[in-house]
Amino acid sequence: MSTFLGIDTSNYATSLAVYDAASGRVPVMLKRFLPVREGALGLRQSDAVFHHTAALPEMIDELKSKTDCRELSAVGVSVKPRPVEGSYMPCFLVGRAIGSAVSAALGIPLVETTHQQGHIAAALYAAGGDLYEKRALVFHISGGTTELLLVERLQVLRVVGASQDLYAGQAVDRLGVKLGYGFPAGAEVSRLAASCAEQPDPRVSVQGTNCSLSGLQNQCEKLLAEGRDPAYVSKYCLTAIAKTVTRMLQAAQAQEGRLPCVCAGGVMSSGIIRDHVTARVPGVRFVPGEFSSDNAAGAAILAARSGEGTHG
């Protein structure tokens, strides 16, 4: 048996995935975004827990139609946001409960990991499995984190840099919701920005490998108040994030050496960010959207690579 189930119940999506270690492929990826009411900037944790609980039985049925669950070797599940003490969100308890149940029912190991480690594993898989065993810089940018991580053998060695206040994904989502789009708003902000022919030159705040993004939200609100076109403001926002990412990566490479760089997380799906950064940081790799945004592929890969899990 060489197939491994991954489960991730983040504050954005319910995700299941199957990794086939024999072929090195992820043949099954299932995801449902959590519904957010119009104008809201996210979900209460109690609502997230409800939506995960409601979605998973149907998703498990769909999974069974796509793979033989009796052939699973282990289950990998995200049990908290990040691999640090005190990291906790109730929504991950739903995935943990389902993972424990599958583990017990099938008599297979349960491998507990974190949402961030899952992102890293999925990103390195999509960027090229040759990075699994190497030391690399992984930039994880989403609605819940903006961290530049030093990674080796899929483990976070340390945080090299981070935002000192607002996360990049928060800046994008707040702009998108202000423009009338649903949460999360990254895809709509990116689409709107792509229609702008002007090239903004935003101010950014980067101090070595750390940054501050709270000023970006203020700048975008000021531009809208001045009557600037929403497409221009959207491009301004994404260009500011691109400049910030570039400067932080350049500082990290100067500090850590010319390590491979991988950019992951939902915000990194933006073509504007990708094009800006790749033109200025040699060898940087961006991850395709399905492996960059929230997904369970990383949890499945980590289960396969763990060798031995803990039985639920």
If you had to describe this structure to a student in words, what would you say it looks like?
- The chain is of the alpha/beta class and 312 residues long.
- It folds into 2 domains: 3-121 and 293-306, Nucleotidyltransferase, domain 5 (2-Layer Sandwich); 132-289, ATPase, nucleotide binding domain (Nucleotidyltransferase, domain 5), CATH 3.30.420.40.
- The chain is 42% helix and 22% strand.
- It has 10 helices and 12 strands.
- The strands form 3 sheets. A 5-stranded mixed β-sheet has the order 3-2-1-4-5, sandwiched between helices. The chain has a 5-stranded mixed β-sheet with strand order 8-7-6-11-12, with helices on both faces.
- This is N(6)-L-threonylcarbamoyladenine synthase.
How many whole angstroms does the radius of gyration measure? Answer: 19 Å
Strand order of the largest sheet: 3-2-1-4-5
Which outline best applies? globular
Strand content: 15-25%
Uncertain segments of ≥5 residues (pLDDT<50)?
A: 308-312
Number of strands: 12
Task: Give the fraction of residues assigned to helices.
Answer: 40-55%
CATH-scheme architecture of the largest domain: 2-Layer Sandwich
Q: Given the structure, what is the number of helices? A: 10
Average pLDDT, to the nearest integer? Answer: 93
Number of domains: 2
The N- and C-terminal alpha carbons lie at a distance of 19 Å
Q: How are helices and strands ordered from N to C? A: EEEHEHEHEEEHHEEHHEHEHH
Main β-sheet description: 5 strands, mixed
CATH domain class name of the largest domain = Alpha Beta
CATH topology group of the largest domain: Nucleotidyltransferase, domain 5
